[in-house]
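Following up on my earlier thread - several people asked me to post the actual chain instead of describing it. Fair enough. Here it is, all 240 residues.
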Amino acid sequence: MKRFLQRMANALGYEFRRLAADDHEDPFIFARSLIQAAQPVVFDVGAHHGQTASRLLALFPTATVHCFEPYPESYSLLEVATRADVRVRRHQVCLSDRTGTSMMNCNASTATNSLLATDRRAAATRGEGLLDTDMRIEVKTTTLDAFCTAESIGHVDLLKIDTQGAEYAVLEGAAEMLTRRAITVLVFELITAATYAQQRLPSEYFTLMESRGYVFSGVFSPMYRHGLLAQCDVAFTLRP
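Reply from S.P.:
Thanks for posting it. Predicted structure:
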């Protein structure tokens, strides 16, 4: 995720600021230090073209990585990138807070596709053009809870979410798994700049995660625009 964010940052005019050096500058290395399973179950929600999946497989060579990507073009590229790896399970479905279908906003940059419409202020805070919506398509949705039940998955060791402002819906759809402490580490993108209509406030994420028994455990890859934090990756772990 980090290398991809760096490329996106250059395109959008952002800057990275390195945090004070420590052993946990990469969220997935941080997660690896907490996961003891011999064969971890990893969810890559918003897998795009498979960039993060490759990183996860390098760090967790014995893992099964479930990749979720609903956008047809991105899913096709994901399939090409991962089809030779038996450790990868691909799912052309959108994890959200409900089962059924939803409309996806397909933007000029596929990396910014979202169930949320683009905020009218996005060009000012994120750069011109990349979040311009070209079309809307219907995509299949399910919840993380429903998927785990259907696939008989009782525990997820690492849940990575990058769904462009719709991360909160994914977390809401994981209420049962979170409540019974069946997810060890969560890493997700937290957007703080005005980017998508109806995106949730950072405080709402913290309240939700704390209510489910998780604690804020780290911030990674902060991106700034005009001197203000625009987005970062955050990690949550089980409350001891």
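Residues 1-23 have pLDDT under 50 and may be disordered. That should answer part of your original question.
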